[in-house]
Amino acid sequence: MKQFLLIFTLICYTMISCFTELQAQSDIETGTENEYVLSVGGEGVTLDDFKHIYGKNNRDSVITRELLDDYMELFVKFKLKVKEAEYLGMDTVADYVKELEGYRKQLARPYLVDMNLLDELVKEAFDRQQEEIHARHILVSVNPDALPADTMRAWRRISLLKARVDAGEDFTEVATSKGGSDDPSVKDNGGDLGWFTAFSMIYSFEVAAYATPVGEISNIVRTRFGYHFLKVDGRRDARGEVQVAHIMVRVPDVTDKAMLESSKATIDAVAEFLQAGETFESLALKYSDDATTASKGGVLPWFGTGKMVEEFENTSFALEQNGDISEPFLSSYGWHIVKRLGFKELESFDDVRNSLKKKVSRDSRADKTRSSFLKKLKTEYGFTQDARRTSNLVVSVNKTDSVFHKGHPIENVYKSELGKTLFAIDGIKTTVRDFIEYSNGQKNRGLNRPAEMILKSLIHQMVEEKLLAYEDERLEEKHDDFRLLIEEYHDGILLFELTDNKVWSKAVRDTSGLEEYHANNSELFMWPERLDIAVYTCEDAKLAKKVKKGVKKNDDIEAMRRELIGDRPLAIRIESALYPEGANTWGDTVFYALEKGTFDLNRKAPRFMTFEVGEEGIVLIHVRDRVPPTPKTLDEARGQVIASYQDHLEKEWIMALRRKYQVEINTAVLYSLID
Asked: Is the pLDDT of residue 513 over 60?
C-alpha cells in the first residue's frame, strides 16, 4: 500500500519536484539562467531548474502569465512542504535514508554502462531478430575457471575436431563419433540446433552464427559451456509469432510401426469429426493427450521460432488464416492437428526498443557494455596499476600451500609491500594492505586454480568495484537528469511521509475532528431530492392485482413472496429504498412523470404506477413519498467527509507554513519565460 501511495505521490508532484535548492542570494543578477525565481525560507530556486521542470510537464502548451501563476502556486506549496520536512529532520531518519538509497541504486544502473554501446547492441539485436539461422554445432566442455592445462586440452581437442570437418568429414558423423561433441543431445540430433534468432543462444555463440555464411564453418568460439564451432545450414526471414490450438495423440515410440498405425487411426477419426462439424474445443477435450491444454480447447501460448519442434512450427506457420485447421501430421511426440488462432507480424524498432533494452541488459551482452564502460572510466580517471606489486604478491602467497582456502587469509605478504600502491583511480591510491583486507573478506571460488590466477582475478574484481563506486558518487555532478530524478524521489518520499501524517492518515484517525468537521459543514454533504418507492415485479396481472390490494391493506408483501418462492421463485421481486434521480430506472420513471405532470403526488395514497414489461410480467411502483434534500449522516457520507476534511487540513497546513516560512517570488524573472 505504501509503495502504491508513494508512486502516486511521485506522479502528483513530478511536475514540481525536480529542482535544485540553492541558497538564495540577495543580489540576483538579471539576464542569466541562474537567477532566482523563488525563495522559500531562505532557500532559492534558479530559473534554469524551474524552466526545466516546467518545460518537462508543459511541452505542448503556450506559456501565459496565468499558467505560470497557477504553476507557481503549486510549486510554492510543494516547496513549503519540503522545507518543513527537512526542518523536522525527516531526511535524516534511518528508514528514509535506507529507502532513498534503495531507489538510487536502481536508478543508477543505466548510468553505469556504456550507453552508446548499449544502443548499438539493441539495434544489432533488432536487426538479427529479422532473420533466423539454422545451424549445427560441436562442443568440447570446459569450465570458465578451468586450470590452464585443462583449457589447453579442450582447445587442442576442439581444434582437432574442427580440422576433421574442414578436411571434408561429415559434420554429423564427427559430432556423434567417439570423442566428438560433449553436447548431451548430440546422440538424438547430431548437433542440430534447429532454427534460432537473437537471444536464443549465448551472445558469443550468436555472434559466430550470424557472422558465418550458409554452408560455411565458423571459427572456434568460447562460451561458459566450453569451446564450440558451428556450421550454418540456412538463413531465412523471421516469421513472427503465431498462436494455435492443437489436438495431440501421443506416440510413445514413433519407430514402433504398430503403435504408429493405431494412433494414426485415432487422429484420422478426429479429423473426420472436425470435417463433420464438431468443434475443435470439444474434440481437444475428448481426444487430446496434452493434459495441460486439453481442458482449454487445446490452446497454446504464442510462440515464435525455436519454441516448438520443427514439424509443429512449420505446420503452424503454414496456416494462412485464423481458423484454418491443418491435416494430421507427425512429430517426435506423436500425431497433431493444429488450428490457427492468431498471427503477429514482427514489430517495428520503436515498438520494441524498450523491451529489447531490458533484454540486452539481462543478457550476456551486458558484460560487453560493462567492460566497455570500465575501459572508458580507466581512461577518464587516469587509472594506473603497478604490475610489480602483483608479482610480489604472487611470490608472497605461494609460500603458503593453504592460501585462499577456507579459514586461511592472506597473511604472509612482505611488510615492506603493505604500504605500496597497487593501483590508483583519479590519484586516489589503493595499497597492497587495502587489497589484502578486501580479499580476505571475499568468498573465493575456483580455489583449485593457481594463486596467481586467483590474485589477478581478485585484483580485477576490486578494480571494477572501485571504479564503479567512484563513478557512482559523481553521477549527480555529471548528469543533470539523474540529479533531478534523485531529487524527485528524495522529495517524493518526504512528501509522502509528511502529508500522510499531516493530512491523509490524520483525517482517518482523527475521529472527533472528523465528527466536528461534519457537524459544522453538514450543508456540504446533502442528499438530493429522493423518492421513497417500492417496486414490485409480478409474474402476471393476477398476482399484481393481489399485491396492489395487499399494499393498500398494509399486508406483508415480503411474507407473500416467501410463500410463493418454493414453487415460483420469480413470482414476486421487491426493490425498496430512497432513490435520488439517476440511481434507479423505475425511480427515474417517476421523476420524469412528475416533471411532465403525468403523475400527481397529491392524489390519495397509496399511489401506484403500473407497467407491463413483456415476459417479466407486471411492474407496480408504489410511490410512498417525495423527500426533500436532507443532510447525510457521517456514516452515509464518510468517504466524502474524509476527502473534504483532508482538503481542509491541507489548506490549514499550507496557511501555517506560509506564516512560518517567508516566500518571495521574483515575478519579473518568472514572466521572462513568456515569449
From this structure: yes
Residue 166: predicted pLDDT: 97
pTM of the model: 0.68
Q: Which residues pair with 245 in a beta bridge?
A: 299, 339
Asked if 243 contacts 299 with a C-beta cutoff of 8 angstroms, the reply is yes
- Alpha-carbon distance of 207 to 197, in angstroms, equals 11
Helix (H) or strand (E) holding 97: helix 94-108
Is residue 411 very low, low, confident or very high in pLDDT (cuts 50, 70, 90)?
Answer: low
Q: Tell me how far apart the alpha carbons of residues 485 and 477 are, in angstroms, rounded to a whole number.
A: 13
- Cα–Cα distance measured from residue 289 to residue 249, given in angstroms and rounded to the nearest whole number: 6
Task: Look at residue 7 in the predicted model and tell me its pLDDT.
Answer: 44
Residue tagged 468443434 (cell numbers): 279
What stretches of 197-328 adopt beta strand conformation (E)?
Answer: 221-223, 226-237, 241-250
Residue 229: beta bridge partners?
A: 138
For 65, the 3-state DSSP assignment is helix
- Residues constituting the chain: 675
431-469 pLDDT per residue, tens: 999 998 888 777 765 566 777 788 888 899 999 999 999
- HSE, side-chain direction, 13 A CA sphere, residue 638: 6
- Residue 212's identity, in one-letter code, is T
CB 145 within 8 A of CB 449: yes
Amino acid, res. 156: R
> CA-to-CA distance for 623 and 600, rounded, in angstroms?
10
Taken in order 580, 584, 588, 589, the sign of the CA dihedral is negative
DSSP string, 630-662: EEPPTTTTHHHHHHHHHHHHHHHHHHHHHHHS-
**Confidence grade of residue 27 (pLDDT, cut at 50, 70, 90):** very low
Cell reading at 409: 587469509
Distance CA 580, CA 627 (A): 9
| 618 Cβ neighbours under 8 A, 6+ residues apart | 537, 538, 540, 541, 543, 544, 610, 611, 612
